[in-house]
Design goal:
The chain is an alpha+beta fold and 519 residues long. It has 11 helices and 27 strands. It folds into 3 domains: 3-75, no CATH class; 89-368, no CATH class; 389-518. It has helices spanning 3-16, 126-129, 271-281, 353-360, 389-405, 409-431, 433-441, 444-456, 471-485, 488-506, 511-517; strands spanning 23-33, 36-47, 65-66, 69-75, 86-87, 92-93, 106-107, 110-114, 119-124, 138-140, 154-170, 173-186, 191-192, 204-205, 221-226, 230-238, 248-252, 258-265, 286-291, 294-301, 311-314, 317-334, 337-352, 362-363, 378-379, 465-466, 469-470.
Amino acid sequence: MSETQWWAAHAAAMCAFANVSGVVGVGLGVKETSGELTGEVAVIVYVEQKKPRTLLRRTELIPPDIEGVKTDVQRQPHFEPFGGTMLKGGVQIRRSPDDQDRPKPGTLGYVATRISGNMNVMLSCEHVMLSRRHGDMRIFHPDVSRCCGRLKNAVGGVLSGYVGLAPHMNPLGTEDYYIDAAIASIVSNVTARKVIPDVGPITGAGDLTATPVGPGNATITVSKRGAETGFTQGTVDDVAFLSGRRVMKIRPKAGHTFPFSKTWKVPPEDIPGHLTDYPAQSLGGTATQVSADEVRFDIPVFSVPGDSGAAVVNGGTIVGMVFAGSMYELPAFDNGRLRIGGMPSGFTMACHIPPVLSKLGIRIDPSSETSGGRGVLVPGDEITADPPDALVAINARLAAIEETLDATAGGRRLNGLVRTHGDELMELVHHRRRVLVEWHRSRGPAFAALLLEALVDGERRLPATVEDVSREAMLARMRNVLDVEGSSALRMAMAENERFLLDLLARSRTVDELVANLA
């Protein structure tokens, strides 16, 4: 049996067992018998508690195999994060409680202070914290559950965030700055330090927004600590890189970089082009052919995906926050499918910190270090987010619908699809370019807004057409692009549930009718 077949069985198991009571995760590993590994590949089904088969309901029974791969039911061990529940700048944080690649994790930039209430908050990027998503707003750290399902060590909750242009006054006048930032509260049983390891003591926030760079001026050296690449240094090439959007452009500093390397399986006919194009289009990158259809790309970097949110520091002051990097795009194979991939090509973009502070209502206090160098622990605060009334109404309505659906077989099927694939869909729509473009072309945002209105008012009609696009056409277009960009588990779920969902929508004029039709 091939590796592809093993992963196909794993994807099938994730769908099949999503709603089975007591199942908390699905893995792929080696079958265990009497505490010994057998050497046989198996789909590992993790449960809260193992019970004799005689005490299980028929719906709770796990079959001995799935798609030809044996299953192995194991009790999920209890995990604690290595190093305890300590928050500080440079550590990994993420929104998803599931062990999936999407949404991707990011970096806690600094433990800032919210001016309102004088409370400690986590500062990172909005696209890491996803503050605009409804529902579960928890933040997790670190990811210790790669082998067995869901994270349970929530360390805080999202408070607010912003992506877009933000006006800010500098010595040259009022300009628009691009920011991507969010804050989250810290739960009371988690401690935090206002430090960034390796970077040195933080004295406050600095402003490079009016600092000239280039020939004749002193080089501006900056450093950061990211969850993915650790401590690196760079130099600021430009403080107003994007026209109409003031952001910082940073290049890696020789001798203080992270040696990033990745091997891609690519179409053989494209290899000669990559061997010349990547070195030419990157900062010190190399491309080496390692097989008939594989190329290894190597480059010294300041940051890579996973470092988003890292604080950019100059002379002990936080002057910016990493949010993006330049990429070399190339067609590459992923699980046998040709997709557009990306390799870091050297530059990092960071938003300036002053407009972030004013927009989010926070400040950067000095590092919590004594003169002897010992850290002072700063207790976190309870989650005290005050969402708008409209959001409260939507969340209450969603919770009521979810509870009603869980009481029926059809409802559990729909809830299971949302719980299993909702995070991936949100990530694809917001951050995968091809999906984002099709979403807007298909009037997706307008459909979503009308759906939210229908959720709050159960008698309001579900949107059937927006402008010149029907609901069926929108769903078909999105199905086509997700079939290319989505994970194997998502593709399988779409194939198995497409008719079920389309029939359900065809029979339902309102949300209340949809819920009733699932009874």
